[in-house]
Design goal:
124 residues; alpha+beta; two-stranded antiparallel sheet; 5 strands
């Protein structure tokens, strides 16, 4: 059963400017995400960071809390070997997902400087 749906759109240029600030990186991205981003070229880094940020906002919309519901760095967006994105939830976000019995589905896309994310929460 679908428990929640969230969608978000993020401008890669806006995120690119913020990536220069260590406080932004530490507040928004988990260490594993920061490692992923640092391994990418400048253009891909901005697009990937924007997609990850959009995913976090889409997750919070699906949950129904909006920004402030969970720490953004507890909502790590990583990639499988295939390139498919997934959430690696930690802290209160992981506890919440386990308590609710939800599986989190994530899809990302980016083109022409815009990144889009959709999150579907499925009650299992």
């Amino acid at each position: 059963m679908i428990w929640g749906v969230g969608i978000d759109l993020c401008d890669a240029d806006r995120i690119e400017k913020s990536l220069a600030k260590p406080s932004f990186l530490d507040h928004v991205f988990a260490p594993a995400e920061q490692a992923l981003l640092s391994a990418l070229g400048e253009k891909r880094r901005a697009e990937t960071a924007a997609a990850n940020f959009a995913a976090k906002e889409a997750f919070l919309k699906a949950v129904g809390t909006g920004l402030g519901g969970f720490a953004l760095c507890d909502l790590a967006v990583l990639r499988r070997e295939s390139g498919a994105p997934y959430f690696a939830l930690t802290g209160p976000a992981a506890a919440w997902a386990a308590e609710q019995g939800v599986t989190v589905h994530l899809s990302l896309t980016h083109e022409r400087g815009l990144a889009n994310a959709i999150v579907i929460l499925e009650k299992v």
